[in-house]
Every structure is written in C-alpha cells, then in structure tokens.
Write a structure and sequence with these properties.
Elements: E1 4-7, E2 10-13, E3 18-24, E4 33-37, E5 44-49, E6 56-58, E7 66-71, E8 76-81, E9 90-96, E10 111-112, E11 116-121
Parallel strand pairs: 2-11
Antiparallel strand pairs: 1-3, 3-8, 4-5, 4-9, 5-6, 7-8, 9-10, 9-11
Length: 122
C-alpha cells in the first residue's frame, strides 16, 4: 500500500515562513496536492501541481504567499508558505493519485498522508 509522509509543520508567529515536505513510499506514486483542515472545519484545497511539476494551482486564500513544487529526482512534494496568518492554522495533508494529476477535489486522490500540524500565533 502507498504511504505518504508529511513533515515540516510547527508553531510559528504571524508573518513567519515554513516549508512542508511530502514523501512517498512508492517510487511510482508521487504526491501532487496539499489540503488543510482546521478544527471544526472541512478539509479544503490549498494547492496542486501535476507530477511533472507544471502547471500549478493555488487556492485564492494562499495565492501569492504559498508555492507548491515537486522535486521529481527525489519524488518529493513541497509547499513553501510565506507571510503566514492565523487563519492558516490547521493540519496539512498531502495527497496523491496514480495518474499524477492536479485536482481541486479531494475525491480525486487515492492516497493521503497522516498530516502535519501548522499553528500560527500572534
């Protein structure tokens, strides 16, 4: 079974930056999307990228602050988060499917990581 592993979360202050990483246990499957979920809220789309590294898509709430990218030589998905806000707080999940596509809908993804906590405080 494919397993995804997120890392890089932590406790930061408003305006700080973090870089999240996602690795896969299967060389044939690479993560292509990030979602997040705040307490009491549904999981929401953050960003996605096709397996080859382009094109990229970012939610309106993070566009201009977050950047999704892939390193195909290592099969790692990244999410660089700048200018963090309190509303960015939540558990961040990476996702993958066997097509390596970039999709807005969570139902399009077959594999999910366990999540990494991002907490932004003032």
């Amino acid at each position: 079974q494919v397993q995804l592993f997120e890392s890089g979360g932590g406790l930061v202050q408003v305006g700080d930056s973090l870089r999240l990483s996602c690795t896969s246990s299967d060389r044939a499957v690479g993560a292509t999307a990030w979602f997040r979920q705040a307490p009491g809220k549904e999981r929401e789309f953050v960003a996605a990228v096709r397996w080859r590294g382009s094109p990229t898509y970012h939610a309106n709430s993070v566009r201009g602050r977050f950047t999704i990218s892939r390193d195909n030589s290592e099969n790692i998905l990244y999410l660089r988060m700048n200018s963090l806000r309190r509303e960015d707080t939540g558990v961040y999940y990476c996702a993958a499917n066997r097509l390596g596509s970039a999709e807005y809908d969570a139902s399009a993804y077959e594999y999910w990581g366990q999540g990494t906590q991002v907490t932004v405080s003032s």
